[in-house]
Structure formats: structure tokens, C-alpha cells
Amino acid sequence: MKYLITGGAGFIGSHIVDELMKRGKQVVVYDNFSTGKKLFIQHHRDNPNFKLVKGDVLDQNLLNKSLAGIDFVFHFAAHADVRSGFENHEIDHIQNLEVTQNVLEAMLENGVKNIAFSSTSSVYGDATVHPTPEDYPFQPTSLYGATKAAAENYIYTYASYYNWKAYIFRFVSWIGERYTHGIIFDLMKKLKENPKQLELLSDGTPKKSSLYVKDGVEAIFTIIEKAEEQINIYNLGHTEVLTVDQIAGIILDELEAHPTKKYLGGKVGWKGDNFFVHLDTRRLNKLGWKPKSTIEEGIKKTIDYLMEDPNLFK
Amino acid sequence: MKYLITGGAGFIGSHIVDELMKRGKQVVVYDNFSTGKKLFIQHHRDNPNFKLVKGDVLDQNLLNKSLAGIDFVFHFAAHADVRSGFENHEIDHIQNLEVTQNVLEAMLENGVKNIAFSSTSSVYGDATVHPTPEDYPFQPTSLYGATKAAAENYIYTYASYYNWKAYIFRFVSWIGERYTHGIIFDLMKKLKENPKQLELLSDGTPKKSSLYVKDGVEAIFTIIEKAEEQINIYNLGHTEVLTVDQIAGIILDELEAHPTKKYLGGKVGWKGDNFFVHLDTRRLNKLGWKPKSTIEEGIKKTIDYLMEDPNLFK
């Protein structure tokens, strides 16, 4: 099997690449390095099984060429900043939906019959069932969530039309090594700028689940190995949830910081954010997977990683 | 309240226009007449409450101008041919999803806070629960269904972002006066061309529900008057289902035709078609609505209408 990973130089994508390389697979990373980093993949540079294509998923021609001979596509390139969609109504549509259709067309062009896709808990929006199961209907409150949901719909249809196998993963926030943005990053950055007062966007009560990246990668490969439907839709999350205040507390403890806290917002941190994110992972657990790290352990590993980022904290 | 109806010269749209005009409302029909017909709206031409804009929903400038002063948009323009999406992967994306985002942007530009949208049973694809309730997850097997589902997702998000009121109607096939395409049309046309043998695309066993247009219009106005959520999602269908063979039988009886029947296909009539379409309408029934016509009565009225179409059968 030969694999291509869009967004393969990104946070999650590069961990998929590592796992595939470890398994001795042939791997093509397709990335435009808008948020992906060479640093995350450069250790494979001299491996003959590894190939890098610097390209944009909007470039249909290059994408078509790059999928020649590929058996399996991980489509993990995305506009992963949930917040900005409220101000910019085009970016999620283009970067999450249109590029997905480009990938599907390139698969068709090249006879590729397997796709794995990084979707999100945001498709459920402000779900009223917690933990939220996979058959909960889409109720996205952000264009990020709406365009990921739409991309799922398109994948569902192409897989039905052409009898492909599809794996759709609905992620909570991932944390751990190579984490590049999100609440831990934001809070650490703020603390660096002002160690005396920490501003939180919400009132501190929003509840979120997170998943440590190595647990997440294990979940993905468990699903691909064991899930037997033609179209396999799985929540990836943690049984635990932490409030924003608890997350901040872990960071402050770990950094031995003692700022006063200032709450700027209400029940959500920004327009389109969801107050309570907790996914039902029983479908995944039935395949034999459980997270090995607690969320607290994952946050600590993330802090350790970020502390070593020379651009951020040194 | 001033209303704009995209696709207002189409089959369903023009019936919405009739009802609004009957209620003395100010109405703007926005239609490019690609499938809509002047004939369907010309009886309002001299009414001062009526205005016609010949325009395409892809024309963002004209759409923005046309929504000035509007309070409520019925977005009913669509690429309504489910079948062709298998061959043409762009048309549904553009005509169902991109135009919907254009409508949403025009609403934002003009401060319009109410939208009604014509969605479809096709969002459920090959549902395994029958009749299928509104909280069944999207599993579209056609790009028509996928793009309508995606448009729903976008409407959900814009309504959440800007606190709009939204009404999403998931329709089974509509039949009745001004019906322009679908199985009744196809079978009558075939009979005209060859009265001795009638070809059916499937094996005759697919089960479909249909709704007579006057019942459907009544359902839509019942929902708009009585539904109290911010985002209101309703199935519109019939408690009855008929097989393709039963539908053909009603047509043959009504036309007193006695062809032999030839079955061309299997369980579905074309790639992406769904074998069993039956929507759970209890949510709508709770608002006090029931269909007044049986499906058989609706089919007969459709046949009567089509028999008078000078272009088709005279």
C-alpha cells in the first residue's frame, strides 16, 4: 500500500507519517507549508520510502499527478482555526470543502479507493446529548464545523458512488508534541507576555475534552485495521472532560505561575464556540482502544513541548 | 413582511408565491427561468404587490440589490435533478451549495433575518430507519443530497452566528399542478412514444413517498406560523408509500393504457437513487397538519395537469 497524506507536515498529519514510516510503508507528504513545518517531517528526508510534494490542495493538476500510484489518501489538510470563520466566510468553504472535493476528484482520476478524513466534534455544535454519539445530527455553529460536515457529506457520496472505503474521524482537540495552536498555546503565550494577570476568553466554565496525539494516532490505526463498514465514522475523544479553568490551573501549576485570572467572556470563548464538547467513544472502544494518557498528562506533555519551542518561549 | 422567493417561478416556488399573494403580502420572485416558467407566475403580473426579478442566484450583486427591504427569504432555487450529479460533479455544488451561501451573504448584507429552505429526503440516503425521523444522520448517496445537506449545515451556522430564524424543509417528491419532471412525467412521456411497451428503470419494487403540492404548501405555512425554535427542521412527506410498480399501475389505469412492462434495472433506478423513501412526519403532524390527498389522488391530479400541457401531450 502506498499512502499520500495531505497536510502531512502538520501537527496531526506528521504523526500519521511517522507511524506509516515506522511500518515501512511508502509515503507521500503533500503540504503547502502554510501551517505545516519542515521540522516535523525532515527526519524522513533521506528514507527512500518517503517523498515530499510541496503543493496546495487547491492545485488540482498537481494533486492529480501526485495521486498516481497511491492506494490510500489521508486527507488531513484543513483550515483548522475554528474562530476565524465568523469574520471570514470564504476560508473554511475553500480550505475545508472545496479542497476535499479536489481530493475526491483526484482519487477518481487515479482509481484510489481508500480515504481517511479528519473531521471534528464541531459538526455536532451545541449538542444536547453528552457524551455525543456518532449518530447525533449535524448542528454546526461555526463555518469550520459546517464545512467539515459538508466535506463528510461529499465523502459519503463519492464513497457510495464508487464503492470506496472511507474512514471519517471526528476529533476533539488534539494535544501533545508538535501542537501549534489552541488554548494551551494561547494561555502560555499570554503568561509570557504578562505573568501577573491571565485573561481567559470565557467565564472559565466551558467544558472540553482533549486527546493526546499518540493516543489519537493509535486510535486512527486501530480503526483502519479493524473497522469493517464501507464508510466508517468514528468519534475520537476522551472519557474525561476539563473546564477551561481546570486547563488553566494545570498550566499554572506546571509553570509555577501565580497570576490573577481575568474572565473576559461568558459561556463561550468566541462566536461559534461550543460550551460543552464531550464525545461518546464507545464505538471506538469496542475495537479495543482506550486512551493511555489522562488529559492532564497530555497537557503536561504539550507544555513540555512548547517550552522547548525556541520561537515561542526562549 | 416582504418576501423574496428564489426559484419563485418554479414548480414549488410558484405555489408559495400564490399563497403569499393570496395573503396580501409583498412578493419578489427571483428566478433565472432555467427551469422556472413565466406561465406559473404571469397571473400576478399586474398586482402592485408583485415584483419579478429575472436573475441568477450566482449573481451576488443583483441578489444583494434585490434583497434590499426584504424580511423573509424562501430559498427554493436549486438544481433539482437528482440523477445527473453522478455524471456532473460540479452542478449540484454550484447550484445547491454555492448559491445558498450567496443567499446567506445577501441576507447578511441586507439585515434579513428569516430564511426558509427547500431541502430533501435525499440527505438521509439509504436510511435504515423507516419512516425516517429528522434526527437521523446525513448519509447522502447522491451529490444532490450531499449539497442539500451541506446547504443545511451552512444555514444552521449563519442562523447561529446572526441569530436568524430558519425553516428547513426536507421534502419527499412533490406532485400536482405545475409538476415538471420526475417519474410520472417520464412514464407518461415513454407511453406517448411507445404505447405498447413501458420501460421501468428499476425492477419496479423501489418504494417512494410523494406529497401533493397543495398539501405541501399548507404544511410549509403551518410550520412557519407555528414552529417556535430558532432553527426549525421538518420532514414533509406522506404516511403512505407506493412502489414504482404501483405508481406505474395508477398511471396506466388513468390513461387506460395496456402496455407490457419491461424492467431495466435492479433495486434502484439509477446510481445514487434510494430504494426506500419514507419520512417520519410526526413532528409536523403535532403542529396540526395532515395531508388531505392520498398519493393516488395526487398522481391523478398530476396526470390531469400533464395531459393539458400543450408541449407534452397534444
From TrEMBL, chains A, B:
* Organism of this sequence: Candidatus Woykebacteria bacterium RBG_13_40_15
Domain of life from the UniProt record? Bacteria
Q: Which InterPro entries match?
A: Epimerase_deHydtase, NAD(P)-bd_dom_sf
Q: What is this protein called?
A: NAD-dependent epimerase/dehydratase domain-containing protein
The similarity comment for this entry is:
Belongs to the NAD(P)-dependent epimerase/dehydratase family.
Domain (NAD-dependent epimerase/dehydratase) ranges:
4-237
